[in-house]
Amino acid sequence: MAKIVIIEDTEKIREELKTFLSRYGYEAVALTNFETIIQDTLQEEPQLILLDINLPIVDGYFICREIRKESDVPIIVVTSRDNEMDELMSMNLGADDFVTKPYNTQILLARIETILRRVQGTSVRDTLVYNGLSFNLSNGSVTYQGETAELTKNEIKILSCLYKNKGKIVSRDDLMDFMWNADAFVDDNNLSVNVARLRKKLEGLGMEKNIETRRGLGYILP
Amino acid sequence: MTLKDYIADKMPFLITNVILFAAVSGILLLLNMSGAIVFLIFIVWFTPVVTYILVEFIRMGMFHKELSGTLESLDQKYLVAEIMKEPGSAEGRLLYKVLQESNRNMHEHVKSYRERENEYREYIETWVHEIKTPIASTRLIIENNPNQVTRNIQEEVRKIEEYIEQVLYYSRSNNVSRDYQIREVPLPALVRNVIKRNSRDFISRGIAVEINAVEGVVYSDAKWLEFILNQLIGNALKYTEGPDGKVEIRAARNENNLVLSITDNGIGISDKDRDRVFEKGFTGENGRKFGASTGIGLYLCKKLADQLGLGITLSSEAGAGTTVSLVFPLGKAA
């Protein structure tokens, strides 16, 4: 579980961000003592830092520079200042990424994932396993009891969304949101067709129990 | 200034001379002076008067010609008082001083307005920056409490954000300092971003999106472009109904331009409204029917596009749909 330190002076954002990251399986620590923020951060030995720019006592640029003297921990600058100068400045001071408020939380999450994966080398999460079905994310194929099938781009997205929420019902709307966020602009009919095809492929491999439809609610990978 | 005008100007002077001469010659004739002497006096009297008037006219003409030449060559006409040569005549010098004084006063006046506008703009920028913090926390609270209620709130928050963005770009659109940066902007990513921003609207209203031949790069400011495109796609969505609704985004490369067009099959715009859609505050029939129109969106798009050097055109047929095209000029090398 990756540890993320949040350096942010707005209490509400700090707390909600902490809850949000915890929900997605990160150990989130929100530091509040801005007098000793640099030492405190280094002491936590985080895998990643989310850093605001406008802070009391010292600003984010200063913190960024000081941390860089001691550590190579990835830093994502999160700020509501939205201009090129700030972005350039952050990058020059050694930040790894720059996200502007009010950020899309899914995008923030994706950036965190990308950076962590890059820092930690190729991750083991390239292959997902579910009830004997192994799902290879790098080449988009599924294998069940030695039989392999290739999935289309949309099918991969549907399966990975359901996998991420396994055991939970995913509403059609949420599934659509996920697809659209991943550049697959499918409409309602397309989605039904894609789910049906995916189901058929999995059945073709001999996996009888796969995606279930909950009428009026959505889909679930039980 | 014509000679006639000038003579009319000098008329009191001439009439005074003529009356005086008539009086003098009358007295002389009563004293039995010969006509030849009266005529001689006439010559001696009027030759310098006429010569003086003619010389003055030529001098005035030259001065006037030079002044209008200077005025002609100036972009900012009000600068003429700074540049013109100080006239030689007492009357001219007086006017020159008055002109300079009034000019200085006008400059001060303009300056105070300019400062006021800048201050206001800075305030807007700060305000936009500050309101982003509570919006960011609202977003996170929504994210942490996923249910139908917060999902609806999220949609409203997104709208608030769009209005805020509009305020920011509105205040920037008037600025001459131009805080945009021309870079290479890949079209596919730009279009995908904007579609994603509007994904909730597309999905919940069952409107399909079709992307055709959108490829390559344009040279422009990515953020401004995204704002413009977002307004246009937002409009397309607003006036289109599901489930047969469709928004198509298409790019076409011509010899010397690239046209990015957004076409919807929505309610369209009536003939009498069509030519006025880029006017500030114009809402038209659709605005009255749908209510959610401010008449700012397209006006702002046009203004920003003008600043970026892009063309923007709209064609529409009532009941059939609307197409808005952004025209990116291409250089010879591109």
Write the layout of secondary structure elements.
The complex is a heterodimer of chains A (222) and B (334).
Chain A: E1 3-7, H1 11-23, E2 27-31, H2 37-44, E3 48-51, H3 60-70, E4 75-79, H4 84-92, E5 97-100, H5 105-119, E6 127-130, E7 133-136, E8 141-144, E9 147-150, H6 153-164, H7 172-181, H8 188-204, E10 212-214, E11 218-220
Parallel strand pairs in A: 1-2, 1-3, 3-4, 4-5
Antiparallel strand pairs in A: 6-7, 7-8, 8-9, 10-11
Helix pairs in contact in A: 2-3, 6-8
Chain B: H1 3-30, H2 35-73, H3 80-83, H4 90-144, H5 148-173, E1 183-186, H6 187-197, H7 199-204, E2 208-212, E3 217-220, H8 222-238, E4 246-253, E5 257-264, H9 271-274, H10 284-290, H11 297-308, E6 311-317, E7 321-329
What keyword list fits this structure?
heterodimer, A: 222 residues, alpha/beta, Rossmann fold, Arc Repressor Mutant, subunit A, 2 domains, five-stranded parallel sheet, four-stranded antiparallel sheet, 11 strands, 20% strand, B: 334 residues, alpha+beta, Heat Shock Protein 90, 3 domains, five-stranded mixed sheet, two-stranded antiparallel ribbon, 11 helices, 7 strands, 63% helix, elongated
Question: What does it look like?
Answer:
The complex is a heterodimer of chains A (222) and B (334). Chain A is an alpha/beta fold and 222 residues long. Chain A has two domains: 3-119, Response regulator (Rossmann fold), CATH 3.40.50; 125-220, Arc Repressor Mutant, subunit A. Chain A has eight helices and eleven strands. In chain A, the strands form three sheets. In chain A, strands 2-1-3-4-5 form a five-stranded parallel sheet, with helices on both faces. In chain A, strand 10 (212-214) and strand 11 (218-220) form a beta hairpin. Chain A starts with a strand and ends with a strand. With 334 residues, chain B is α+β, with helices and mostly antiparallel strands. Chain B has three domains: 3-85, no CATH class; 119-173; 183-329, Histidine kinase-like ATPase, C-terminal domain (Heat Shock Protein 90), CATH 3.30.565.10. Chain B has helices spanning 3-30, 35-73, 80-83, 90-144, 148-173, 187-197, 199-204, 222-238, 271-274, 284-290, 297-308; strands at 183-186, 208-212, 217-220, 246-253, 257-264, 311-317, 321-329. A five-stranded mixed sheet of chain B has the order 2-4-5-7-6. Chain B has a two-stranded antiparallel ribbon with strand order 1-3. The radius of gyration of chain B is 35 Å and the shape is elongated.
